[in-house]
Amino acid sequence: METVQNFINAYSWTNIHYLLQGLWVTVEVSVASIILSFIFGTILGVIRYANIKYVSAIIGFIIDLIRNLPLLIIIFFTYFGLPNLGFKPAIIEAAILAMTVFESMMIAEIVRSGIMAVDSGQMEGALSNGLSYWQGLRIIILPQALRNMIPALVSQFISLVKDTSLATIIVLPEMMYHAQIIYGQNTNYIIPMFVALAVLYFVVCYALSLIARYFEKRMSYSK
Amino acid sequence: MKKFWCFMGLFSVLTLMLITLTSCGSSTALSKRDVLQADKKSNTITWGVKADTKLFGLMNVKTGKVEGFEIDLAKALTKEILGKNGKAVFVPVTSQTRMPLLRNGNIDAIMATMTITPQRAKQVDFTRSYFDAGQAILVKKGSPIKNVYDLNKSGKVVLGVTGSNSVENIGKFAPKARVLQLSDYAQAFTALKSGQGDALTTDNGILYGMSVENPGYVVVGGSFTKEPYGIAVNKGQKNFRNRLNKALTAVEKDGTYNKILKKWFSNVPGLNYKEMMR
Amino acid sequence: MAHIVATQWPLLLTGLWHTILCSVIALFFSLIIGSLFAIFEIMPNRVMRIIGHVYVEIFRNIPLLVITMFFFVVIPLYVTKINGFTAGTIGLTIYTSAFIAETVRSGIQSVESGQMEGALSNGLTFWQSMRFIILPQAFKIVIPPLGNQFINLVKNSSVLAFVAGFDLMYQGNMIANNTLQTMPSYFIVAVLYLVITMPLSYYMRHLEKKLA
């Protein structure tokens, strides 16, 4: 009975409202990072695949280095390290910047492997039909690669949405941080808050994976 | 093999870059700046405070403002130093962010339940204590543990919070016990509830607050250490620190301190705020 | 920085050991469980498909911290006492297995569907053709995204820090608080994570080249 009462108290309108404010920041940071990292990730992935002398090797190394570092530490260094170099980002800028840098590397790796999985005969076909290498990549290879990559990309984006919670370390006012403040009022609110977090993250992430499944289906019909 | 050396070369270059990024390059420039004068000019003092700790500094979910003993005291000190129109700005900090924020100059001072210890005094300058907490333990009602010495047996598990001084103290009072550090008070208390530890230790004010919310849990044995909380400022800011000390004396003398103390601690059962009056 | 390593190395070593141990256990089991649920998801049997689908969608869409906290604070209340390390490892395994299932499923589905029919018409059972024909090809395709997942796993093991699992991040927090030298402490921790994940990603690269 006591537990039920805790849930009722924890889910007061003010608390829920506060939690949803956090959700909004989570969504904002996620959307910005998804768009930016998709763009940069694709570019980096293509360069990494294309085997341009030195450039591809160096980019490949940077990709490996950054994706192997814990995101938490990248966020931390972005916010506290960059001021040493003369650039002082606001908390939300630092969060988006760190997420974008990290996720671009993850996506670059997915894009590269997606391109590789497309039959190599197709490139030859494109070249012999008079397309240039870059045209072949853009018109023939990338669209097919993209279709194969959707599941991996979506998994990565789902991780991204949840990883925004790591930015609590620099006190980004997102959902996880707001939940912590709410259960700071009363230790009994912690389990209700964790349940609420699970539900809210699930809604956002599941919506993302539904959209992805829709695209995946639609694109495979056009096969 | 060639590839391997290429890799090692790049690796060391990037490591060096990271080191420069993380080193305290900026602190030298900042330590030359006189914080007190800069604050007087801008008419604001920026405080790093807790936003998730009841009684001391907790964000009000409705207004979005931080409230607590430390907040009120910081406001009083700001007024004392800058005059009636002086502005106090509050930046929420955690135990992971307080030091880099202070070093980078995002905040002028840390006032966030930080105990003065010799180890810490090597990194920052402390004012004299503005609050004397004492460490205690919280156990389930009817537990065989009556004081901290009962925990000094192998197999006993004590829960604490990362970044608090209390976990270090337990090592002195009950060296045989195992200490588990959790990330905040609510998580530590929930772990105690589910039997992950025999006792929860931290400063008494916070523990009494928990026992009010959960009548099945009690503070036993009284406090066994003194935890003087101090305001931390960057090394080399002697002027600012001395001014803070002076301001603290002033608010203690004119009764503001006692008023704030009464406001936050008179309703905490088990804690005699009158003993702490200054 | 050298000073921190010199004085705090016992903590760092314990942290490294727990992170590696947790990662290896979680990697092994999540690969098995993940592949199993991936196969469920594409089985002809509708019920199995639904089971696979529900498992994947539930566990990959809720935060790892919530799953781990469930094992740390709820299971001890009603079932049995488990420590933070175990709770964290179980949580990490379940969470990662959902991601691996999704990765492997997409790999299986990108193997041409004619191959399954061919195998079945040659008298192999569903499971036999899975094991000998489809999975080996699928794994080749999914190695790079799997590599991403493995690296994510190692880094996600930092969830142990929230349940006192004595991993690298937990020790990093302790060291940062002991010394108050926050940035250098976390820098050392970052380098130690690289020590684990870099060889892992190079091994995946190597595997990819070998199988190609």
Automatic annotation (TrEMBL), chain A:
Limits of the ABC transmembrane type-1 domain: 23-212
Signal peptide feature range: none
A GO BP entry: amino acid transport
Gene Ontology MF terms in the entry: transmembrane transporter activity
GO cellular component: ATP-binding cassette (ABC) transporter complex
InterPro entries registered for this protein in UniProt: AA_ABC_transptr_permease_3TM, ArtM/GltK/GlnP/TcyL/YhdX-like, MetI-like, MetI-like_sf
UniProtKB keywords: Amino-acid transport, Cell membrane, Membrane, Transmembrane, Transmembrane helix, Transport
Localization, UniProt: Cell membrane
Membrane topology: Multi-pass membrane protein
Membrane-spanning segments: 23-47, 54-79, 91-111, 165-183, 189-215
PROSITE patterns: ABC_TM1 (PS50928)
SUPFAM superfamilies referenced in this protein's UniProt entry, alphabetically: MetI-like
Main location (coarse class): membrane
Family: Belongs to the binding-protein-dependent transport system permease family.
Protein name from the UniProt record: Glutamine ABC transporter membrane protein
Naturally occurring in which organism (per UniProt): Paucilactobacillus suebicus DSM 5007 = KCTC 3549
Automatic annotation (TrEMBL), chain B:
SMART domains reported in the protein's UniProt record: PBPb, PBPe
Protein name: Extracellular solute-binding protein
Entry's Gene Ontology cellular component terms: extracellular region; membrane; outer membrane-bounded periplasmic space
GO MF assignments: ligand-gated monoatomic ion channel activity
Signal peptide positions on this chain: 1-25
Gene3D superfamilies linked to this entry: Periplasmic binding protein-like II (3.40.190.10)
InterPro entries according to UniProt: Bact_solute-bind_prot3, Iontro_rcpt_C, Solute-binding_3/MltF_N
Gene Ontology biological-process annotations: amino acid transport
Annotated source species: Paucilactobacillus suebicus DSM 5007 = KCTC 3549
Record-annotated Ionotropic glutamate receptor C-terminal domain positions: 44-267
Keywords on record: Signal, Transport
Superkingdom as given in the UniProt entry: Bacteria
Annotated ranges, domain Solute-binding protein family 3/N-terminal: 44-268
Residue stretches spanning the membrane: none
Family the entry assigns: Belongs to the bacterial solute-binding protein 3 family.
From TrEMBL, chain C:
Segments passing through the bilayer: 16-40, 61-79, 183-203
InterPro entries in the cross-refs: AA_ABC_transptr_permease_3TM (IPR010065), ArtM/GltK/GlnP/TcyL/YhdX-like (IPR043429), MetI-like (IPR000515), MetI-like_sf (IPR035906)
Domain ABC transmembrane type-1: 16-204
One GO process term, biological-process aspect: amino acid transport
UniProt entry tagged with the keyword Glycoprotein: no
GO molecular function list: transmembrane transporter activity
Membrane topology qualifier: Multi-pass membrane protein
Leader sequence residues: none
Keywords, sorted A to Z: Amino-acid transport, Cell membrane, Membrane, Transmembrane, Transmembrane helix, Transport
Compartments, record wording: Cell membrane
Highest rank taxon of the organism: Bacteria
GO CC terms of this entry: ATP-binding cassette (ABC) transporter complex
Record family assignment: Belongs to the binding-protein-dependent transport system permease family.
PANTHER family: GLUTAMINE ABC TRANSPORTER PERMEASE PROTEIN GLNM-RELATED, MEMBRANE COMPONENT OF AMINO ACID ABC TRANSPORTER
Name of this chain's protein: Glutamine ABC transporter permease
Organism (species): Paucilactobacillus suebicus DSM 5007 = KCTC 3549
